Amino acid sequence: MSDDLLVACGLRKAYGSRVAVQEVSLVLRPGEVLGLLGPNGAGKSTTVGIISGLTVPDAGSVTLSGGVTLASDPMAYKRRIGLVPQDIALYEDLPARMNVELFGALYGLAPDVLKRRAAEVLAMVGLADRARDKPATFSGGMKRRLNIACALVHDPDILLLDEPTAGVDPHSRNAIFDNLEALKRAGKALVYTTHYMEEAERLADHLVIVDHGRVVASGTQAQLFARLPAVQRLRVEIDGEPDEVALQGLPDVTRSGQRLEIAVADVGHDTSALLAALAQRGVAVRGLATARATLEDVFLALTGRQLRD
Ligand SMILES: Nc1ncnc2c1ncn2[C@@H]1O[C@H](COP(=O)(O)OP(=O)(O)OP(=O)(O)O)[C@@H](O)[C@H]1O
Question: Which residues form the signal peptide (predicted)?
């Protein structure tokens, strides 16, 4: 569609006999956060590498709005994309501001623009007061934020973030999320790769779930949750060890030790029906909690495996 910002189609990349990515297609719309979710080794970094122009695909294409491709206009393509790589890429012994300016210079920004933009992006990531300090003196989270500033200096439409919270403490993780939410409000489009489903749930409008190099599902969160038999689960702690016969006939129950997990469509109605059924079977209940399904459950339902080991 003409208002798509980025369309990746049929991406494939193999390293020798190992196929890292195959038939990966995705669409990014203006102002959208696209979460690229999958376990380690699923092909997320390779996909982001191809989109950024750093990795050459064996097949497939990436086209930006206006028909811009890396082949048709490399500079225009690169000016519109910012990359925050998984491995922090900074000059540890140069002041933070100089790091940002060096990245900007790569895009040919004029010196006055460079100075203004460096100050703007450092303020944006909350590092204005540390502009003269060297990254060598920064925490892991501050380095991540400086990396984000470097990726934003040339004011790209699209920001690619490859696991930007890896190795970051919870406080810095929240600061990074605040930055990303502000960027989203400012109309930037983000591709956010992670294997933390709770991060994807918090930030992403649209999700592409990858596994073994392939897209296994994509859609909004609501669309993905709709693929589960039920979005709510009941957790029931029971007393003793009821025999399996007592539990027979209860709908969709998973049992581990003294905990039962039951998918329910309507918590209000189904809880009382379930408690009545358990009482009738002589099963004593010690505790009860409800839990909403997560993207982890979606991944499990799609692949039969956990997202994280
Ligand atoms: N340069 C490379 N040479 C050889 N194999 C590679 C290379 N880059 C990636 N791979 C392989 O391709 C597959 C996909 O890797 P990729 O880094 O894209 O996954 P990922 O989803 O980003 O995982 P992670 O979360 O661990 O970074 C893996 O099996 C990986 O070992």
Answer: none
The atom of ligand 1 lying closest to the CA of 16 is 4
CB of residue 45 inside a 6 A radius of ligand 1: yes
Q: How many CB atoms lie within 10 A of CB 98?
A: 15
Domain ranges of the chain: 6-220, 232-292
Does 231 have pLDDT greater than 90?
no
d(CA 25, ligand 1 centre) in Å:
18
For 135, phi and psi rounded to 5 degrees? -55, -25
Supply the pTM of this predicted model: 0.85
Instruction: Give the CATH fold of the 6-220 domain.
Output: Rossmann fold (3.40.50)
Give the span between the Cα atoms of 208 and 35, in whole angstroms. 6
ipTM for the predicted complex comes to 0.96
Do 232-292 and 6-220 have the same topology in CATH?
A: no
Ligand 1 centroid from CA 57, angstroms:
14
**Band of pLDDT at residue 283, cut at 50, 70 and 90:** confident
